[in-house]
């Protein structure tokens, strides 16, 4: 990038909010996705809407790219810089502007940490349910950009179910306000659902209006082990079809359980093939009744060991163990590729088997865990990026997994987004027409392709469209049809 452009950028944000030393740039050259990295030209922390707007105007004029970024916990390469780009970091926009108890809403800045918001609203007897695995670090802006899910998605839904409105700066620098506190609003196109999950390609969020709900008064947490993995899948299907909606039904296979036990030492059974973590919440009477029904379903499906948490502390310990699954697996091998294939819930037992098949067919170590209650699995490959032959096998295994998920009526991502990591698989999930429709939206909103280019879609070749790449060279998985 020309020095005079960098000078203009520095002038817009002020030298104290502008960084271009190699050390600073390295910190913002990667996110939570393995094997993807690219240095930006500079990193900036804008202070207000006007500065963001000016940066975007300059990017359109001088043809450089802007990469919006929250905490960088994303798992699909959504905040990886591209060539000739600057990173716009929003983590300092981290205030709760208002909690409106009359309307059950919270207005927050995009850098608000999800877990911090949850604790604040819970003090008032309110509840913000979406709880991504990285909730103690990740930001609401990032959650909205990726439409993040979490352990409680089964009963409470995902981020999009709690977004009432956003204020944002468009790629061309204009200010846009969408939605508001009205519970019902069908005026015009539903722009809110287009920008939620748009992965930073259609605008930079500056304020987000969230829906809150009353905090449940009681919950019960159950863990259960199974000698046979198939029985865990059948149990999930039976619980769902029994008309009970637990707040969470989480699945861990033997590999994941052993890694979690090494890490947490909480007494998990190392010999069982699978474990479920189930929580029911709500009013006292219904919680106890639902828990009893669930225990009888588990027994019918050959449960080896059932443990009901004695108190909130033990319940938290069990849930923390599940939340640590990724970190625990990551300690095993130098490189951890965490994916998220999703299928209709009824197909979960089949999908669990397909993941095992992928591991054995392609000779790779895959730990599997995930949100069994909503059909969202996280097959996680434990590998080493220095071994290119093994990495190729890992990519083939994931190609097989995504392909099988689509065959079962599922999709290539339920939570992590498409980003850079899954671009090559998107057409298989949404079809050629779906891709074209998305491209038209992007090209109208961002005619010069300056905002987070190359993520989700590849728009017509441009000289700076060369992106970081090891994961992009994923073999064509249609050959497995």
Short note summarizing the structure:
The chain is α+β, with helices and mostly antiparallel strands. It has helices spanning 3-13, 22-27, 49-62, 114-122, 140-146, 153-156, 191-195, 229-241, 254-264, 284-300, 312-323, 325-330, 348-361, 388-407, 423-445; strands at residues 18-19, 42-44, 65-69, 85-89, 96-100, 105-108, 126-127, 163-169, 175-179, 204-211, 213-214, 218-226, 248-253, 274-282, 303-308, 335-338, 341-342, 365-371, 376-383.
Write the layout of secondary structure elements.
Layout: H1 3-13, E1 18-19, H2 22-27, E2 42-44, H3 49-62, E3 65-69, E4 85-89, E5 96-100, E6 105-108, H4 114-122, E7 126-127, H5 140-146, H6 153-156, E8 163-169, E9 175-179, H7 191-195, E10 204-211, E11 213-214, E12 218-226, H8 229-241, E13 248-253, H9 254-264, E14 274-282, H10 284-300, E15 303-308, H11 312-323, H12 325-330, E16 335-338, E17 341-342, H13 348-361, E18 365-371, E19 376-383, H14 388-407, H15 423-445
Parallel strand pairs: 2-4, 3-4
Antiparallel strand pairs: 1-2, 5-6, 6-10, 7-11, 8-9, 8-10, 12-14, 12-15, 13-14, 13-18, 16-19, 17-19, 18-19
